[in-house]
Amino acid sequence: MAMKLAATSAIRSFASSSGISGSSAFARCLHASAGSKKIVGVFYKANEYAAKNPNFLGCAEGALGIREWLESQGHQYIVTDDKEGPNCELEKHIPDLHVLISTPFHPAYVTEERIKRAKNLQLLLTAGVGSDHIDLKAAAAAGLTVAEVTGSNVVSVAEDELMRILILVRNFLPGYHQVITGEWNVAGIAYRAYDLEGKTVGTVGAGRIGRLLLQRLKPFNCNLLYHDRLKMDPELENQTGAKFEEDLDAMLPKCDIVVINTPLTEQTRGLFNKDKIAKMKKGVLIVNNARGAIMDTQAVVDACSSGQIGGYSGDVWYPQPAPKDHPWRYMPNQAMTPHISGTTIDAQLRYAAGVKDMLDRYFKGEEFPLQNYIVKEGKIASQYL
Amino acid sequence: MAMKLAATSAIRSFASSSGISGSSAFARCLHASAGSKKIVGVFYKANEYAAKNPNFLGCAEGALGIREWLESQGHQYIVTDDKEGPNCELEKHIPDLHVLISTPFHPAYVTEERIKRAKNLQLLLTAGVGSDHIDLKAAAAAGLTVAEVTGSNVVSVAEDELMRILILVRNFLPGYHQVITGEWNVAGIAYRAYDLEGKTVGTVGAGRIGRLLLQRLKPFNCNLLYHDRLKMDPELENQTGAKFEEDLDAMLPKCDIVVINTPLTEQTRGLFNKDKIAKMKKGVLIVNNARGAIMDTQAVVDACSSGQIGGYSGDVWYPQPAPKDHPWRYMPNQAMTPHISGTTIDAQLRYAAGVKDMLDRYFKGEEFPLQNYIVKEGKIASQYL
């Protein structure tokens, strides 16, 4: 698909819900001394795919399209995909980097230990949305600033979730397998293919992505439910027709389809364990583009095998990249992909523009868009608490 | 997914667009003499899948759930999946059947020759929507009535089309292949994965299914175009924001995604040949759940191979079942399935109820719902002309 893409309309403006109030006192990073900075970016390598699309900015080769701009200002810009183990390329730069740019798609895990050794580190930027690969408490304690390109790929992820809902409800993959294996057996697909219309879809979390999903689900005439800490404003609730469920355990048994749209926090890590999955309808379909670690890996495998889960689709795993023997690769009724939903070409253009904007502000000592802050002046944004 | 399904709300009411005006003069079939009728149903066989779902009515074993009802009234009901060749089961019953029930999913091709030999035939019912497997001219000339369960699966098909659009735009299948083959290469997917937002989607045909698709596309913030013989009523045009394109050749070059939503007629057979496909954008994505014969089979293969078509998805083929060596099974960037979109469990419940309703009216000498008629009193419905 050769499309005209406009990076200019990229960064969407959303009402801030970061929970960080405005402040004119800048953190250490924004008082950074002028002069050359060492910036390290960790992105997935594209190899032969790098040259196939001029807008492919999110890979190591594309390097967000900011190399020339950075270097022309005298900054040093190291980009690598090599992020694991004591001898990796990233490790070499930990002691003297000022800024680390990472992504959720190929996460550079920023541990407390790495933060301690990064004496010059001031700023951690996530190219995309989702900074749980960073030890936020340790970052806050060290006075670092952590920021994302909030909103840069929420549409991308919400669209992808709706695709996965349909793939599971319609039982797409067994049909595709028949095609490529020379078979034709309509019954083998149809006996468990349904319309989405009339089904009950519940989202666990109704932040930016959850709300966009609900808006896109609206014309499908489903029963829409959402669980969150807070009720949506009445206008949006009215617009989507979604019903608030204060108690997650009360919502789960009602849902034909459950979509996970909550950040990974200490509260949500392993939330969907054997007990939680047992509360759901037999044959429930689950879509999870949030984070793999929100699920108990083995509980998902067991429930897919027993039929308690009728289908599981998502693009998030723990760890990432998923090892060759990750059991979700081989469980029945899965429709998984690598971590991809937030890194469409359109999303890359937006988060590349957002990172460049924040770097520019950082060099100039200016504040970031408020909703981008994840850690600021020792405080962690409320959605990560 | 274990769901409560209500057949009662099944048959949707749509404004009639069949183009056949009401008439109190009944055709031969509706003057049929009272007494026992021989009814033959041709459905796909489900074998081991038949018992897996009590609502699986659309298979030969399920037989639309009307056997007991028919036999209790003294009618004979033969059901088979064996529909091809001179010695097939269907052929045995051609000389003396009164009613033939067939489906688009496993089409019993009703040729002029078969109609000539079917001396007792009065009524041809399509369980579903799409009666192009019947020679409608020959049926009209013979004074037969042909009727579908109009509207019974239009939601099912429209949902499936949106799924296929997303599967192609998001480049889903290469990611899934990586998962099951133990790989992880985000770049190999991302270099041609896009958001649907902002893209131009054109539907060729904006009848019932096309309109439902446009309604479901509305929240995705695309540029929506439609080509049809007639402009939609302004309210619906306004509601979907879709723009009318009178000239198909003028619409095609604007579209990132083209969806085929036109019946198969003499005008549309082979419509998308090499020349037509060449008018589209390089890398266009095509979704076709209408009929396989609307495409020139080899032109699609060639364009997928050259990259002129960036992705092709649909569930319709010519002929059906698609032979093992059908080239669409093996062309690049396809996301095909067997003919499945209109035979979800929900759709089966609706079209089974609709067929039962029409048989009941036939036995009682009552008129069918007007929009269901495809051939009546020698006239063919306008959408098939």
UniProtKB/TrEMBL annotation, chains A, B:
Biological role: Catalyzes the NAD(+)-dependent oxidation of formate to carbon dioxide. Involved in the cell stress response.
Subunit note: Homodimer.
Chief place where the protein resides: mitochondrion
Record-listed substrate binding positions: V129, N153
Site feature: Important for catalytic activity: R291, H339
Official protein name in the record: Formate dehydrogenase, mitochondrial
Highest taxon listed in the record's lineage: Eukaryota
NAD as UniProt keyword: yes
Gene3D superfamilies: NAD(P)-binding Rossmann-like Domain
